[in-house]
Amino acid sequence: MNKDSYGQELILDLHNCDASTMTRESIENYFIELCDLIDMEREDLHFWDDEDTPPEERETEPHLVGISAVQFIRTSSVVIHTLTIMKRVYLNIFSCKPFDPEVAKKFSTDWFKGKVINNHVMDRI
Fold first, then answer.
1. 90 pairs with which residues across the strands?
2. How far apart are CA 108 and CA 91, in angstroms?
3. Does the structure show a pLDDT above 80 at 1?
4. Mean pLDDT confidence for 30-51
5. Mean pLDDT, to the nearest integer, of 91-104?
6. How do the domains of the chain map onto residue ranges?
7. Which residues on adjacent β-strands are paired with residue 70?
8. Mean pLDDT of 81-105
9. How far apart are CA 67 and CA 47, in angstroms?
10. Rounded to the nearest 5 degrees, what angle is found at the Cα of 66, between the Cα atoms of 87 and 33?
11. In whole angstroms, what separates CA 115 from the centre of its chain?
12. Which pTM was predicted?
């Protein structure tokens, strides 16, 4: 991270993931282990999905079926969007505290058992 930066962000798109890793329980455990690994202090965790939605009102389009979650961290947030049917995970890690994006990328790829399609690390200035 550049010394004049406000922070850094990892943007990661994973395809061909294991759909069994796209549950609230798995994602919560992912956040716990990721934050420990990259030395981030977790704060509030929020999920958006169809869990409490009546079956007739649930999303059915493949590009809409999944879980979105925000794990706030003391220095910003980790945001995830999963597309269960399409077996995709979209991840953003943003922090004004430095972290190793390669460690986060490898851990995320291993956790979701996916293939990296897009990977960008940027300094936020």
1. 13, 81
2. 9
3. no
4. 97
5. 97
6. 7-124
7. 46, 79
8. 97
9. 7
10. 80
11. 14
12. 0.94
Q: How far is CA 58 from the centre of its chain?
A: 22
Q: Is pLDDT above 90 for 6?
A: no
Q: Could you identify the residue written with the tokens 């897009």?
A: 118
Retrieve residue 15's tokens: 């395809």
Checking 79-88 for CB contacts under 8 A at 24+ apart, the result is 80/27, 80/30, 82/17, 82/22, 82/27, 84/19, 84/22, 85/19, 86/15, 86/62, 87/15, 87/16, 87/17, 87/18, 87/19, 87/114, 88/13, 88/14, 88/15, 88/17, 88/114
| Residue closest to 30 by CA, chosen among 118, 93, 85, 98 | 93
Separation of alpha carbons 78 and 57, rounded Å: 28
Share of the chain above pLDDT 90, in %: 90
Q: Which amino acid is at 20?
A: S
CB 49 within 8 A of CB 67: yes
Is it true that domain 7-124 has CATH number 3.90.1170.40? no
